[in-house]
């Protein structure tokens, strides 16, 4: 059975790590089995790392650097990969979103893509410089399948009140969008809360983010920006985002009060 090729090393820092790890291993005449023993993982894990399907961890890099006397090269590459913007950020993000069993998100600029109606999403995409707005719309709508699957993730959502009053697409689009949010807020796996403008200054004013927790309990954070994004996998930095989400939550209304605020905002778009 032929093995998958290494990913394009010019694609991202993570691709370069996968490519270079295989290069170093083959140059040394090491087998996947021996490399797995050095890392303290299963052979299948090393295979996935070399094909870019799984990321090399700091501990694994440290073990290889020590055994192969690389001068700490792989560890440094992992360090910078964790802090860099990923050119393939959207796929990294959607893969994590699909696998997550718990998602915590804060939105302060627009309704999160998972909850957008088709009309709201189209207005957002057409207002930007998206080269393929229809394709992007279809991909965004497809992501929402996680809300209706057999075992949907737990969704802890905090939204700035400003998002409710920004008339994306006009009154009719916003009324439909807020009605959709009310429906989502009533789902048993969703806890949606609103931070009112009267809360004053709070940590979330400088940007949205989300935290995704997988079935193994491992958590990643994601920060997006126009035409870029950063998947945060470093445990200390992820913990920082978790604490940030909790601090924002201290300023939010209760779930019940937030649901009433959504209904009031919806009625304003008559």
Low-confidence stretches: none
How many β-strand runs?
6
What is the CATH C-level name of the largest domain?
Alpha Beta
Shape: elongated
Rounded mean pLDDT score:
89
Compute the CA-based radius of gyration. 21 Å
Helical stretch tally: 12
Just name the CATH architecture of the largest domain: 2-Layer Sandwich
Sheet with most strands: strand arrangement: 3-2-1-4-5-6
Main sheet characteristics: 6 strands, mixed
> Which structural category fits the helices and strands?
alpha/beta
Q: How do the SSEs run, as a string of H and E? A: HHHHHHEHHEHHEEEEHH
What's the helical proportion of residues?
A: 40-55%
Topology:
Elements: H1 13-28, H2 32-39, H3 43-50, H4 58-68, H5 73-83, H6 89-99, E1 102-107, H7 118-127, H8 133-143, E2 154-160, H9 161-165, H10 171-185, E3 190-195, E4 209-213, E5 219-225, E6 228-232, H11 235-249, H12 255-268
Parallel strand pairs: 1-2, 2-3
Antiparallel strand pairs: 1-4, 4-5, 5-6
